[in-house]
Design a protein that fits this description.
Layout: H1 2-5, H2 9-30, H3 33-73, H4 76-108, H5 130-135, H6 142-148, H7 151-167, H8 173-194, H9 197-219, H10 221-246, H11 251-257, H12 259-268, H13 271-284, H14 290-303, H15 306-323, H16 329-343, H17 357-361, H18 368-378, H19 382-407, H20 413-417
Helix pairs in contact: 2-3, 2-9, 2-12, 3-7, 3-8, 3-9, 3-13, 3-14, 4-10, 4-14, 4-15, 4-16, 4-19, 7-14, 10-15, 10-19, 12-13, 12-19, 13-14, 13-19, 14-19, 15-16, 15-19
């Protein structure tokens, strides 16, 4: 099997993705509906196992790497500078994502002429108010937060614990070394799990292709084009521009170095599930040191949702166009602002963005009935759109990590600029 493991992971994942699409379409077209669904469900089990393994590792990975990353800084003051730079960059890139989403929605007019008469309404429940979500960042019981996978609360507790270990100086050194060793162990576990990625991707994509098929794209062609093109342009212009023109680093090396993470993000539709491989590629391929990778990336996987923000802007305009709502200039500003705010801390799992849509649509007084119809129309194929916006989220995390590492002197440029091994 040496030849298999000698192939780069992103190439194996891409192969699994392509074969999964072909397998799913062939099964759906050549077998009876019941038999095809049964076979696709069995195939999906492989993908579900992969996702469960990833989710199993996410909480310990975030917790141990974040504490170890802070300890590796050696100075509590450095946490402040890294944190501020990362947060400001996350906000700025989200702002540009808002603009891109509104631009794509305006140019493509994806909701114009869409007939929603035959769509069954679907309500996904109310999202928590922003104030309640912010208060929940402080865990009443940190162990309960770890068990429940409440990532914002886990990050908050890990940050304080890491700072406490640093402030303890020599007395805290044994604890610091423990977290460094635990972090390395969890990363090795991650490497083992990621070797299953091509097979997991095959199972997941085969099910999506077989159950939703090509007809799904034709039903939402303009919306799909608007979302995919907007996401691609945002990555190339904003993230690529940051790397090439502000950081003065090779544009091609950056995107080539994060291909593994992008492929896993696209196939799993989960930034949290992709976090282990995101940490690995920025350290091994881009030369970002542990102190930055271990602190900036877990934070980004939780609060940096540029793809979600871009998507919510497009869907808001889609709704206005489909139902004939008139949007004034102030509505565009409020849509962008609301989409940015509600996207922060969005659960890094598939289709979580739809839970937030009603908040954005309230900006121009969309009725609950119309909101339910839009959700009912989008929900069946939202996975296809979610796959691309997750790639944006993960790519944004890596771009910010590289920028912060460069400015903090924590970037090994020799690794970043090195030619990849064939």
């Amino acid at each position: 099997m040496a030849w298999w493991f000698g192939i780069k992971l992103w190439k194996r994942v891409f192969l699994g993705l392509v074969l999964g699409v072909i397998f799913g379409l062939v099964v759906s077209q050549t077998m009876e509906a019941g038999a095809a669904e049964a076979l696709l469900l069995k195939t999906k089990v492989v993908g579900d196992v992969f996702i469960r393994l990833i989710r199993m590792i996410v909480v310990p990975l975030v917790f141990f790497t974040l504490v170890a990353g802070i300890y590796a800084m050696g100075d509590p003051k450095k946490l402040g500078t890294i944190g501020v730079k990362a947060f400001v960059l996350y906000i700025l890139t989200t702002f540009f994502a808002n603009l891109m989403g509104l631009l794509m929605g305006t140019i493509f007019q994806p909701g114009k002429g869409v007939d929603l008469g035959g769509v069954a309404p679907k309500a996904l429940g109310e999202a928590r108010p922003l104030g309640e979500r912010l208060m929940a960042i402080i865990p009443e019981n940190p162990f309960a937060a770890l068990v429940q996978g409440d990532m914002l609360a886990v990050i908050f507790f890990a940050l304080l614990l890491g700072v406490g270990i640093l402030m303890a100086s020599e007395e805290g050194a044994p604890a610091g070394r423990f977290f460094e060793a635990a972090s390395e162990g969890v990363l090795k576990m991650t490497h083992i799990i990621m070797e299953l990625a091509p097979f997991g991707v095959f199972g997941l994509i085969a099910y999506v292709a077989g159950t939703q098929g090509i007809a799904t794209f034709t039903a939402i062609f303009k919306l799909t084009i608007a979302v995919y093109l907007g996401c691609a342009l945002h990555m190339l212009i904003v993230y690529g521009g940051l790397v090439r023109f502000i950081l003065r680093l090779p544009f091609v090396n950056y995107f080539r170095g994060i291909l593994d993470a992008q492929m896993v993000a696209y196939s799993t539709s989960s930034s949290s599930a992709t976090l282990p491989v995101t940490i690995r590629v920025v350290q091994e391929n881009l030369g970002v040191q542990k102190s930055v990778a271990g602190s900036v990336l877990p934070l980004g996987a939780t609060i940096n949702m540029d793809g979600t923000s871009l998507y919510l802007g497009i869907v808001a305009l889609f709704t206005a166009q489909a139902f004939g709502y008139t949007l004034e200039p102030q509505h565009y500003f409020l849509i962008a602002l609301t989409a940015a705010l509600v996207s922060i801390g969005t659960a890094g799992v598939p289709s979580a963005s739809l839970f937030l849509l009603s908040i954005v649509l309230d900006v121009f007084n969309v009725t609950p009935e119309h909101t339910a119809l839009i959700i009912g129309f989008i929900f069946p194929f939202d996975r296809l759109l979610d796959m691309m916006r997750t790639v944006v989220n993960v790519t944004g995390d890596t771009a910010v990590a590289v920028a912060v590492a460069k400015w903090e002197g924590e970037l090994d440029e020799e690794v970043f600029r090195a030619k990849p091994v064939a």
